[in-house]
């Protein structure tokens, strides 16, 4: 039989969150080892914060020892878990070993004691009441007993380790180059409902590369959206501002009735819309506009589109807006523009905590969201990315940085896939054009130095 | 002392992935729990497979034991894997598979066989001894006798209780390299064409575009999405696309082309037109041709009654089916596939079936990654496909397309490479099977033709 806990993902999460974001490491399982308290003690003594969980037919009860199994008296938190409700009460101080009835000394904790070899636990009526258990439940037959060491989810050491990984990722992304040098910068367009987090994502990416929090793109909570212009934001590395070869293009939010005009999207994709163009929900841009970019080149076009959604509201978007987004997606596919979806506010999902961001794709609530987004919009699972934007923080956090960089890496790789997929003659002509541009720039620079 | 491991987060993850999709749970830490053999045994016995890790001054060395941790004064055999983190990287590991005898007494923990004393640990003095062979195999820069700072023992959850499987996981990377070199060295049979064309055809959503992306990802070493994927009311792929694959990012183009088509739809006037398929097979359809579900292409060449050259024709067809829907294919879809097959056979083109969304990648191939296992080939879906399309079992291939960067794994790569290899072999078979006169025509390259005319 395997050493696997009986707790469901949900039950484990409820207990984890109740006891302060702890990770549970299974040390002892009666049904696999032996229903013998000596075995339990051998495996669990001196392990720091420890939790004993007892499974009966109808509910889960247990004891949480903040100081673990040691030879001294301490407070013990007894708890009961029914569905997703945790009720607890503090008793003590007692010797933790006396949670288990001691036959030699005829000793135990009077209000709560486990007789492991007889597979039952006795709970006093006072404790039953405090835990919300029916008084007739005691003595309770137990099917299994598990003991866990409780570790900090996100301790200093883990934070340091993640910081190392985040830094490696950052350095790798600094070396990014658009495929075949076809364009000087990859242009990434952010589209999505109002308030989804597009401008926040721009700020978050810029912050991670700069090394400090920045709020260049305006964000806010206006129901009509805050962004109303087309903005291209370059991303620079470090405080010296070394420019990186990609830009993020922020747009007006999509909404059912107002928001970004669908025809404007076509103009953006083709590279006709200038930086700081003021969108008009009623009228798309026309070629008469003074700053309209005629004869746009590949370097002006969009190389990858990111559909940004707030993870909390993505399933509640109006039918009209969902249809609009699906139509936009079909247009992109027809024009050969590659795209991905980005879900923001990942850590605000019910039951998800900051520590979960480390392994977010294995969390059940997130898997359910991915299924919903796949079902409602048709994005492939591989094309749905997840982040948590910087909103109110003063300092960067390696855990958030890592997710942001992982998403950005996927986005930049997709831009390269797009460039690589261009018909070869387009690629050749673009490359020649870029080379000519570079040669001209060199000549310009040398003529400056000559003067 | 806090009971947390000295391993970094990445090292823990790497060790977890060493033998499959496993995870580690710390059971014993010498600094917190004491140096006695009993301390170890009490905590680690009856837990299942374990990994004992020794933190040396600059290296990390450890041993995995498939069997339960030994009890005091007992000797037992166990499948073991000795491993070490390669110097200066936290992600590279070297590993050595052993069938060892394990023994623990009050002073020592030993792993040995009749030939060698692989690893001997002096528990009281925090010293360990590695045999010269181990040091050589693991490429360690250590003396035989080394002091260690701490010993940690983890339970390994999720590992398969099968020594052959353990060995398989350890050799996966090597075998992947073998497949990769073979593919890189491939040349179409008799150099009749410079690139072999493989057509992917199948129901909407079966994984054709995803397969091309997975092939490219396997060669590039990271997840790519050049072909658009996803789902919609109709096929996402609406154009005929011929994709070349490069030998890695910035590498040479390989001599095969994967041709992606619109999905087959059960409904009338939807999905790929069956007449279009014949035109594709014969080579009339150009790259980026936009399919019309209601109207097949009007090929220009047809009017001239000549057929496109061999290099433009399809040399192998892969019927791509989602393994989870094989047993519930509708009669209409089966009829479509059979009709396509008739055209394929008439044109003498090679055929394979590609089953996607396979769950247990680790078990599809045998321990040496040479052939498919008996349990794989006896699956109901394989039998159903055999009956439906009479294709030899060796050409019914299984893959698991990549669904994210996180899902990249050497064994998935191997399945993808193996499928590609079978497709190339089927293509070669069809090229070799061409009537001799047809072959001669193709070999008459312009220079040869002009040479012949000069005579």
UniProtKB/TrEMBL annotation, chain A:
It is found in: Cytoplasm. Signal peptide: none annotated. InterPro entries: P-loop_NTPase. The keyword Cytoplasm applies. One of its GO terms (biological process) is immune response. It comes from the Eukaryota. This protein aggregates to form microtubular structures. Belongs to the IFI44 family. This is Interferon-induced protein 44. It comes from Cricetulus griseus (Chinese hamster).
TrEMBL record, chain B:
Coiled coil: none annotated. Gene3D superfamilies: P-loop containing nucleotide triphosphate hydrolases (3.40.50.300). GO terms for biological process: immune response. It comes from the Eukaryota. InterPro entries: P-loop_NTPase. This is Interferon-induced protein 44-like isoform X3. The gene is Ifi44l.
């Amino acid at each position: 039989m395997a050493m696997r806990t009986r707790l469901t993902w949900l039950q484990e999460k409820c207990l984890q969150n109740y006891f302060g974001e702890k990770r549970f490491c299974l040390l002892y399982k009666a049904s696999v080892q032996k229903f013998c308290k000596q075995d339990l003690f051998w495996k669990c003594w001196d392990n720091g914060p420890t939790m004993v969980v007892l499974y009966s037919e109808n509910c889960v009860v247990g004891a949480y020892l903040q100081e673990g199994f040691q030879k001294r008296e301490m407070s013990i938190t007894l708890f009961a878990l029914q569905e997703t409700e945790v009720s607890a009460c503090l008793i003590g101080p007692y010797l933790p070993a006396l949670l288990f009835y001691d036959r030699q000394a005829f000793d135990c904790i009077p209000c709560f004691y486990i007789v492991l070899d007889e597979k039952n636990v006795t709970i006093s009526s006072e404790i039953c009441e405090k835990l919300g258990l029916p008084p007739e439940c005691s003595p309770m037959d137990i099917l299994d007993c598990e003991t866990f060491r409780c570790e900090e989810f996100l301790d200093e050491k883990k934070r340091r380790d993640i910081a190392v990984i985040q830094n490696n990722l950052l350095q790798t992304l600094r070396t990014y180059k658009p495929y075949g040098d076809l364009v000087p910068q990859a242009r990434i367009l952010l589209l999505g409902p109002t308030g989804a987090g597009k401008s926040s994502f721009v700020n978050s990416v810029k912050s991670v590369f700069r090394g400090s929090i920045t709020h260049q793109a305006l964000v806010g909570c206006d129901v009509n959206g805050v962004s109303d212009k087309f903005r291209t934001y370059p991303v620079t590395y470090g405080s010296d501002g070394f420019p990186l070869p990609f830009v993020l293009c922020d747009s007006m939010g999509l909404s059912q009735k107002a928001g970004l005009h669908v025809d404007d999207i076509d103009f953006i994709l083709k590279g006709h819309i200038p930086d700081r163009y003021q969108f008009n929900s009623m009228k798309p841009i026309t070629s008469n506009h003074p700053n309209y970019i005629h004869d746009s080149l590949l370097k002006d076009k969009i190389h990858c589109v990111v559909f940004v959604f707030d993870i909390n509201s993505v399933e509640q978007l109006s039918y009209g807006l969902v249809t609009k987004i699906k139509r936009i997606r079909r247009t992109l596919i027809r024009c050969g523009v590659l795209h991905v979806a980005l879900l923001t506010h990942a850590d605000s999902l019910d039951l998800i905590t900051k520590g979960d961001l480390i392994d977010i794709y294995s969390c059940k609530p997130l898997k359910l969201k991915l299924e919903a987004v796949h079902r409602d919009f048709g994005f492939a699972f591989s094309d749905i990315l997840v982040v948590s934007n910087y909103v109110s923080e003063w300092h960067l956090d390696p855990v958030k940085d890592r997710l942001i960089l992982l998403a950005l890496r996927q986005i930049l790789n997709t831009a390269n896939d797009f460039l690589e997929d261009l018909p070869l003659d387009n690629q050749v002509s673009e490359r020649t054009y870029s080379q000519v541009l570079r040669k001209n720039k060199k000549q310009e620079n040398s003529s400056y130095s000559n003067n | 002392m806090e009971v947390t491991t000295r391993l970094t987060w990445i090292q823990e993850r790497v060790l977890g992935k060493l033998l499959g999709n496993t995870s580690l749970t710390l059971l014993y830490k010498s600094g917190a729990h004491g140096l006695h053999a009993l301390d170890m045994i009490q905590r680690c016995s009856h837990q299942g497979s374990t990994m004992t890790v020794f933190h040396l001054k600059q290296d990390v060395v450890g041993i995995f034991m498939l069997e339960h941790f030994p009890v005091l004064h007992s000797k037992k055999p166990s499948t073991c894997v000795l491993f070490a983190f390669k110097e200066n990287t936290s992600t590279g590991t070297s590993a050595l598979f052993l069938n060892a005898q394990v023994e623990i007494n009050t002073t020592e923990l030993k792993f040995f066989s009749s030939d060698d004393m692989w690893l001997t640990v002096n528990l009281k003095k925090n010293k360990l001894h590695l045999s010269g062979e181990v040091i050589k195999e693991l490429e360690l820069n250590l003396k035989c006798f080394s002091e260690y700072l701490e010993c940690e023992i983890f339970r390994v959850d999720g590992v398969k209780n099968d020594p052959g499987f353990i060995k398989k996981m350890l050799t996966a990377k090597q075998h992947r390299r073998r497949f990769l070199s073979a593919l890189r060295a491939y040349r179409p049979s008799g150099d009749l064409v410079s690139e072999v064309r493989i057509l992917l055809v199948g129901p909407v959503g079966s994984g054709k575009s995803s397969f091309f992306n997975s092939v490219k990802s396997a060669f590039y070493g990271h997840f790519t999405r050049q072909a658009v994927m996803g789902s919609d009311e109709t096929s996402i792929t609406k154009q005929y696309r011929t994709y070349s694959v490069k030998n890695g990012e910035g590498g040479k183009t390989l001599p095969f082309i994967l041709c992606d088509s619109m999905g087959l739809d059960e409904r009338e006037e939807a999905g790929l037109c069956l007449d279009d398929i014949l035109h594709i097979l014969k080579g009339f359809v150009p790259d980026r041709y936009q399919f019309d579900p209601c109207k097949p292409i009007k090929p220009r060449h047809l009017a001239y009654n000549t057929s496109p050259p061999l290099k433009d024709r399809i040399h192998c067809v892969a019927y791509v089916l989602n393994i989870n829907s094989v047993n519930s294919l509708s009669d209409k879809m089966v009829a479509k596939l059979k009709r396509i097959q008739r055209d394929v056979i008439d044109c003498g083109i090679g055929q394979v079936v590609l089953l996607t969304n396979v769950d247990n990648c680790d078990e599809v191939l045998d321990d040496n990654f040479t052939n498919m296992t008996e349990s794989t080939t006896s699956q109901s879906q394989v039998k159903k496909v055999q009956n439906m399309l009479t294709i030899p079992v060796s050409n019914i291939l299984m893959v698991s397309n990549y669904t994210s960067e996180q899902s990249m794994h050497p064994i998935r790569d191997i399945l993808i490479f193996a499928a590609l290899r079978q497709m190339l072999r089927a293509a070669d078979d069809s090229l070799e099977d061409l009537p001799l006169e047809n072959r001669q025509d193709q070999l008459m390259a312009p220079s040869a033709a002009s040479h012949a005319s000069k005579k």
